[in-house]
Amino acid sequence: MTFTILGRDPETGSIGIGIATYSLAVGATCPFMLPDSSVLTSQAAANPKIGETIITLIRNDCKPVEAMEQAVRHDPYPEYRQIALLTSTGETSVHSGSRTRPFSGYSEGKDCIAVGNFLKSEQVLEAMTNEFNGLHTEASLIDRLIAALNAGKHAGGQEGSNGKRLAERSACLMVHTSGEQFPVSTRVDFSGDAIPELQKAVNAYQTMHKFYLTRATNPADLPPQDQFSGNLGSS
Q: Which InterPro entries has this protein been placed in (predicted)?
């Protein structure tokens, strides 16, 4: 009961992921990122160890797609898993297990993959890749990922065992831009409508991202954070 978009912007070197789901605290278990290399999700019957294994293999010089295939081969329950990977160079790999809840599958677009399970229909995933690719390329990767989540929601989103619509109770977004020390990473762990809450969190965080990047590498000349935030509010 999850829908996910993985995307990249080859012009800026950005790579990222957005997830929305009925499950709680999705940002704690499903998304994984290795900056300047790969982004992935391990979902459905989520097991964070799968993502951790893939990232470790890549760090140890295994090619990303091979790392994912190796992790799937060694998983005792691959039929219950959905795993999708996108590299910074545009390589993709998707595993959608035979026992993930229908509708379950994926849709590939230009520089993106949508993957999900427990969905209303395959149109949810198609709407996501179409929205991602339909936005003007001047739109930021963050905006395109959130727009894709909204498109999935409006195309029917998740459908429960009883055939009724399921709310998105948690959501997350991670985007890394080449050259930056750490990604934009925001999450909503529990909400009745998580995607708009995620948008709010992202909007708030983006005003501070450059401050946090500078603080990590050269904090000497920065004002206190409360002063910086206050100046933003008065501008």
A: DUF1028, Ntn_hydrolases_N
* One pLDDT digit (tens) per residue for the chain, 235 residues: 899 999 999 999 999 999 999 999 999 999 999 999 999 999 999 999 999 999 999 999 999 999 999 999 999 999 999 999 999 999 999 999 999 999 999 999 999 999 999 999 999 999 999 999 998 767 899 999 999 999 999 999 999 999 999 999 999 999 999 999 999 999 999 999 999 999 999 999 999 999 999 999 999 989 999 888 877 764 4
What kind and span of H or E run contains 119?
none
How far apart CA 150 and CA 145 sit, in angstroms, is 9
What phi, psi does 158 have (nearest 5°)? -95, 145
- The whole-angstrom separation of Cα 91 and Cα 85 is 8
Q: Which domains does the chain have, with CATH numbers?
A: 2-234 (3.60.20.10)
The answer to whether the pTM exceeds 0.70 is: yes
Angstrom CA distances, 38 to 54, 55, 60, 117, stand at: 10, 8, 14, 22
Tell me if residue 30 falls in helix, strand or coil.
Answer: coil
Distance CA 107, CA 119 (A): 13
Name the nearest CA neighbour of 142 among 112, 174, 102, 166: 174
Q: How far is CA 120 from CA 2, 69, 106, 130, 189, in A?
A: 11, 28, 13, 17, 23
| DSSP string covering 125-156 | HHHHHHHHHHS-TTS-HHHHHHHHHHHHHHTT
